[in-house]
Amino acid sequence: MDSKAMNGKPSNKKIKVVFVLGGPGSGKGTQCAKIVEHFGFTHFSAGDLLRAETKSGSEYGTMIQNLMKEGKLVDSSIIVRLIQKAMLESENDKFLIDGFPRNEENRIAFEKIVNIEPEFLLFLDCPESELEKRLLSRNQGREDDNIETIKKRFKVFMESTLPVVSYYEQRGKVRKVNAAKLPEEVFEDIKAIFSSFQGNDIGYRQIAIEAKPERSASLIKCWLPFLCIISILLFLILFLLMSRTCTVFL
Ligand SMILES: Nc1ncnc2c1ncn2[C@@H]1O[C@H](COP(=O)(O)OP(=O)(O)OP(=O)(O)O)[C@@H](O)[C@H]1O
Ligand SMILES: Nc1ccn([C@@H]2O[C@H](COP(=O)(O)O)[C@@H](O)[C@H]2O)c(=O)n1
């Protein structure tokens, strides 16, 4: 699917989307930063987009803030429009969308509004006991990192997000990694997944590598007729000289 599907953005580039899901605190943000650095994706965190919206003075700000405090999900049309806007403003054609789709409604709204099928869904698998430990020691001043909200977020994850993972699993689109290891170890597994994805795909780096042979091939193509004409002329001159020499001798 090309980007025309993305609300008419004029470009021939094929937009690639990878969804990143996992329980709260599974390391989605941590790993996305590494993927961006190594594979040139642009990262959008659904949670960060919503937090930015609350700070922007938007009409939905207070409603979003209240839902987030409760660990509840925001209406799909709001979050999908924020993601779509961020994608349209970007020059990149490869996007990591983290913390999305959180429920079936999110998934269907993205399909309808943005109309791009994800390449795959990266799923960070981690037990709840480890997630709880990480969230309680995250210390980033998030209003939802308290035990009461954390429990609610776990419930939403089990009841609403896991069915989305199953949906993509049935379509062979889930790439699951064990996220209970050290961040660097988790990234080693992720690296293998993205390397094989880049291998099947024309990523930026591959285009850069192939640029030179393509240029020399087109140079040969453009000079070929001149080379032919010069060869024919040289052959004619040689032929004339030879026939003159023969006439003199005779
Ligand atoms: N593999 C890991 N081992 C231990 N701690 C980790 C690991 N990955 C991330 N962390 C830490 O756990 C906390 C949560 O990580 P991060 O913010 O990346 O998770 P997240 O999945 O994006 O969370 P959320 O869904 O709440 O936004 C952070 O303090 C981070 O430094
Ligand atoms: N698709 C989404 C994603 C997030 N939310 C709300 O934001 C909260 C924080 O999300 P993180 O990914 O940063 O953990 C989440 O608990 C939801 O309230 C959402 O509504 N829809």
UniProtKB/TrEMBL annotation:
Keyword Plastid: no
RNA-binding is among the record's keywords: no
Main location: cytoplasm
Gene Ontology terms describing biological process: 'de novo' pyrimidine nucleobase biosynthetic process; nucleoside monophosphate metabolic process; pyrimidine nucleotide biosynthetic process
Assembly: Monomer.
Function recorded in the entry: Catalyzes the phosphorylation of pyrimidine nucleoside monophosphates at the expense of ATP. Plays an important role in de novo pyrimidine nucleotide biosynthesis. Has preference for UMP and CMP as phosphate acceptors.
Protein name: UMP-CMP kinase
Organism: Rhynchospora breviuscula
Lineage summary: Eukaryota, Viridiplantae, Streptophyta, Embryophyta, Tracheophyta
